[in-house]
């Protein structure tokens, strides 16, 4: 459990400090699990802005569409 918390804390800090697309995606997915969709959206949008041609951008776009679909239902 402590190892998981430490890993997640590291991911959050890395993303907050301008981490790479992979770290931001992992943090956004964690935020979704925590039902913090506002922050997840912000991270997904940041991935699209900073890393538009990355594989993570494709996933971020997919997740934003899913969140938008969930918001309309």
Summarize the structure in words.
The chain is mainly α. It has one domain. The protein has helices spanning 2-16, 21-33, 37-50, 55-71. The longest helix is centred in the last third of the chain and has 17 residues, at 55-71. The chain is flat and about 35 Å long.
Task: Provide the fold topology.
Blueprint: H1 2-16, H2 21-33, H3 37-50, H4 55-71
Notable traits:
73 residues
| Count of discrete alpha- or pi-helical segments spanning 4 or more residues | 4
Total strands: 0
Number of domains: 1
Point out poorly predicted stretches: none
Strand content: under 5%
Overall residue-averaged pLDDT value: 85
Tell me the helix content.
over 70%
Structural class: mainly alpha
Distance between the ends: 35 Å
The major sheet is characterized as:
none
Q: Give the overall shape.
A: flat
Which value, in Å, is the CA radius of gyration? 12 Å
Order of helices and strands: HHHH
